[in-house]
Amino acid sequence: MTTLLRIDDRDPSIVYSPDQWRGAGTVGDFDGTSMETLASGATSQLHFTGTSIAVFGSILGINNQIQGNPISTYSIDGKLVHQFAPSRENDLQVNVIFYQSDTLPQGNHTLLVTSLGDQGTFYLDYFEVTSDSSITGSPILTSLLSTATKTLSPTPAAVSQPTLSPNSASIPNGSSSKKVSIGPIVGGMLGGLVLLVIILTCLMIAVRWRRRRHQPYCSADFLRQMGQRTNLDSLEVNSHNQASQRRSQLPPGFHGAPEPFYLGTSQRKQAIISAI
């Protein structure tokens, strides 16, 4: 397939000889711009890839320029192939073909445009490059496309499905076995271990809470009262023992006053707890 590429005079791929060109332009120019020169030997160089190239420019009319015709030469790959001397008209001419090359081999080429001096102002507008994108016409494209095809195309072993015979029950070798990722397994084990620690901690807290819940609660007042009662019990026991000794010393047959009734320690504790 043939493609056409238009390159404007301000394109950075064009190399102009220094200090010999200046910007210009008129309404009819491509993109409204052009480059002009009056210097003898001023050059513009363009590297391109394609099968042909054309050069376009503008020519001032007799009414606009008093100098003669601007003459220019054109070289392809270092070989002079054309010289252009335009015919002048009264009015401005735009989009004039200065040079159209013959068919070139598809590939990289270099065009050199040279203005021959003060014969008139030379106006350069744009270039048109024709390229043949067919595979057979471009060894470079053929090589690139072949490399891309090898890179993108899957291998036959990855695409084709193997056919197993009834007797082919062999175990696949290590190269065809699936690889298991260790990361998810390790992550799952760590997660399970953390969950187990959390569960054990919760169980320990629950057991301690239940034990504390079933223990009797003793307030400070209760403990203080129990301490006082213990002292009283010791005094009463001593008094009871002394009374028993005195009774044993009485003569036989003598009956004194009845022995006082004392509450035991466990009975008093039960009475205190019931009162609370």
Q: How would you describe what is shown here?
A:
The protein is an alpha+beta fold and 276 residues long. The protein has two domains: 2-132, Galactose-binding domain-like (Jelly Rolls, Sandwich); 198-246 and 260-276, no CATH class. The protein contains five helices and eleven strands. The strands form two sheets. Strands 1, 3, 4, 6, 9 and 11 form a six-stranded antiparallel β-sheet that branches. Strand 7 (72-76) and strand 8 form a beta hairpin. The longest helix has 33 residues, at 182-214. The protein is rod-shaped and about 175 Å long. The two termini are 110 Å apart. Residues 155-176 are annotated as: Disordered. This is Mid2 domain-containing protein. Keywords: Membrane, Transmembrane, Transmembrane helix. It comes from Crucibulum laeve.
Key features of this structure:
alpha+beta, Jelly Rolls, 2 domains, 28% strand
Give the topology string: H per helix, E per strand. EEEEEEEEEEEHHHHH
Largest sheet: 6 strands, antiparallel
User: Fraction of residues in helices?
Assistant: 25-40%
Class based on secondary structure composition and strand pairing? alpha+beta
Radius of gyration: 58 Å
What is the tally of helical segments?
5
- By oligomeric state, this entry counts as single chain
* Fourth-level CATH superfamily of the largest domain: Galactose-binding domain-like
In whole angstroms, the N-to-C terminal distance is 110 Å
CATH class of the largest domain: Mainly Beta
Task: State mean pLDDT (0 to 100 scale).
Answer: 75
Total tally of structural domains: 2
Based on the structure given, which CATH architecture of the largest domain is correct?
Answer: Sandwich
